[in-house]
Amino acid sequence: MIITLEPNAPISTSVALLEAAGALRKPARTMPDGYGGLLIAIDGSLPDDLLHGPGVAGVHRQHQPYVLASLEHRARSTVTVGDVEIGGGRPVVMAGPCSIEGRESLLRAAHAVRAAGADILRGGAFKPRTSPYSFQGLGEEGLRYLAEAREQTGMPVITEVMEPEQVDLVAEYADIIQIGTRNMSNFPLLRRVGQLRKPVLLKRGMSARIDEWLMSAEYILSGGNLQVILCERGIRSFDPATRFTLDLTAVPLVRSLTHLPVIVDPSHGTGVRSLVGSMAVAGIAAGADGLFIEAEPDPERATSDAAQTIDPDELFEIVQRSRLVAEALRAPLPQPVRSLVDTDVRELASVAD
Ligand code: PEP
Ligand code: MN
Fold it and tell me: Cα of 299 to ligand 2 centre, how many Å?
C-alpha cells in the first residue's frame, strides 16, 4: 500500500501511520514525493479506519512492486554531484578511459575529456574482466589518480565497485559509485551501497528484464540512499555483429515507470567505435538524461575496450549534438488550428490538393 501525505500534513499523521504499520508488523518506508509531500510505502495494507488522518492525500492499494523507484505518486528526481545536475534537462556526459592505466595517462585523458565538454570523469580502478588473466585494474592506486584528476580538472569522478568489502574504500574517493552490469543482481552489494548517502549509477544487467533492473534499484533506495541513476548499457542478443544490443526502447519505457534519471552507455552498448556517436545522440533523442562514454586521447592504445573507445574530438561532437537534440526535444511545436483527429477526411484531401 502507498499512502501520500500533503505537504502540510501534521507530523502526527505520519507518526500514527508508521506506528500502526509497526504494530501490525508490516515494514514501512518513507520518501519525499518530490512535490513537498511524503510518500509512505507499507508492505501490505492498514485497516481503513487508520487511513483518514489530517493531511492524507491518497491511499493506493494497486501499485508497482518497486514502490520507491516507481513514478507512481511522485515527481521525477534529479541527482546532483558538485555543480552537475543529472535529470535536470541538460544532458550530462560522463567520459574517460575504460581502465585507469597510470597517473600520466589518466590526467591527460581527464583534461582532454574536460576540454571536449564532459561533466564527469569516468575510469575503472577495479575492473570486472571476463578472463582472470586480463588486467584487473590498479585498485587503490588508480583511485588516487582519479582523485588527483578531480583536483586538477574540477570534475566529479565515477568509478566501479565490485564487492561489498570494497565499498568504503571506493566511496572515499568516488563522487558516484558505479555498479556494473555483472553486479546488477549482486544483492549484498546493492544493500551495501544503499547504506551510503552518495550517488550510485546502476547499470542494467546484460540479461536483465526492466522490472528486475528496477527491483535492483529498489534494493538501493530501500536502504535510504535515494540518489540512484540508471544506465542502459546494452543487452545480450543473438547477433555478434555488435558486442551488445543497445536497447534504446528501454529509455522511454523506464522513464515512464520510474522517477530516477536514466543515462545511456553507447560504448559498451555497441562495442564498436564507429557506432558510438550515432547511438549516443540516439540515446538523447530517446529521452536519456545523459551519456556514459569511453574516451581518451589514444583510444588504440587502451588496455581494455580499445575497440569502443573514442577520441576527444569525437566526444566534442557528441556533446554538441546531444545538446542540440535535447533543445530540439524541448522546443515548442507549431499548433494545428484544430484537432486533426476530428478533421473530415474529404477536407484533408482538399487541403492536400
Ligand atoms: C565499464 O563501464 O567499464 C564497464 C565494465 O561497464 P559494464 O558493467 O556495462 O560492462
Ligand atoms: Mn569498458
Answer: 12
CA–CA dist 188, 16 (Å, integer): 32
SS3 category, 220: helix
H/E run at residue 137: none
* 194 pocket-lining for ligand 1 (C-beta < 6 Å): no
Residue 342 has pLDDT above 60, yes or no: yes
Q: Quickly state the pLDDT bin for 274 (edges 50, 70, 90).
A: very high
Residue 261 has pLDDT above 90, yes or no: yes
The secondary structure element, H or E, covering residue 7 is none
Q: Is the CB of 183 under 6 A from ligand 1?
A: no
- Percentage of the chain surpassing pLDDT 90? 93
Flag whether pLDDT at 54 surpasses 80. yes
Contacts of 277 (CB under 8 A, 6+ apart): 266, 310, 314, 317, 318, 321
Q: Which residues contact 49 (CB under 8 A, 6 or more apart)?
A: none
What SS3 class is residue 56? strand
C-alpha cell recorded at residue 207 = 540479461
Q: Which atom of ligand 1 is nearest to the CA of 304?
A: 3
Q: How far is CA 157 from the centre of its chain?
A: 15
Is any atom of ligand 1 closer than 6 Å to the C-beta of 27?
Answer: no
| Torsion 213-215-220-221 (CA) sign | positive
Closest Cα to residue 190, out of 75, 66, 72, 70? 66
Q: At what angle do helices 187-194 and 210-222 cross, to 10 degrees?
A: 40
- Any idea which ligand is nearest the CA of 124? 1
Q: Mean pLDDT over residues 121-133, rounded?
A: 96
Q: Which atom of ligand 1 is nearest to the CA of 233?
A: 9
- pLDDT in the model for residue 241: 97
Residue of the nearest CA to atom 6 in ligand 1?
Answer: 180
Name the 3-class secondary structure at 177: strand
The atom number, within ligand 1, closest to the CA of 180 reads 8
Q: Which atom of ligand 1 is nearest to the CA of 98?
A: 3
pLDDT at 77: 98
- Global pTM reads 0.95
CA distance 319 to 102: 26
